[in-house]
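Model it.
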Amino acid sequence: MTIQRRSWLGLAASAAVSALLLGCASTPSDPAAPSAAVRQSLAPSGTLRIGVYSGSPSSMVRNTQGEVTGVAHDLGHALAKRLGVPAKVVEFERLALVVDAVKNAEVDFTFTNASEARAKVVSFTPPLIQLELGYLVPPNSAIRSVNDVDKLGVRVGVSQGSSSQAALGKSLTQAKLVAADSVKAAQDLLRKGEVQAFATNKAILNEMAQGLPGFKVLDGRWGLENLAIAVPQGREAGMDYLRQFARDVQANGELQAIIRKADLRGTVKPQ
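Modeled.
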């Protein structure tokens, strides 16, 4: 009788272990281990093509140690590593061209302002970062605050095709907008006095100011940008995974480390 009871207990224990193993096998996969469908959706060519433009810490810059960094650049590499695919950086002259490349599926990933207009042509995760929008002005400028900008005779520089160009085109009633093709072109406009202020997010403005001694980023802001990961539309099979990736890098400190490395300034806590 004792032998039979022990045999029964052994069978019960084996069954319990088998059930536990089966339960583990049916547990949803670790988000760090993407399915083939997710990998095919987010990197259909087998390589994650990361769209960037130089001159913005939110996209790509060289830091003081000479390293290439930036939120789009580094987040893209982090996602490629998690997907288990190579990363390829594709550089453009300005952000509008990056957005067009995502729209046309010429690149697979970028990080940019999730404006309503862009959300019609690309797919976004929820915002990861909020950035203040402001103005960069020359030394001894008569423009002392954001409230001094919208006046007759004031020319405000903006990046061609940017969300700042669209927003200020609606809100400024007296100042005139002047479009620049690149960050370098914007610096030239300011240096030559062809614009009295340049408008974009403060991360770019602070980067520009490093090459313009005496120029100042005004206190205050005229708006906020909500920066998020952007991918081509039609990649629904990978969107849950991408949103989980976004939550993970926020929760584990990886995003903050990327922000510090890129020296991204002007951030505020997402609301």
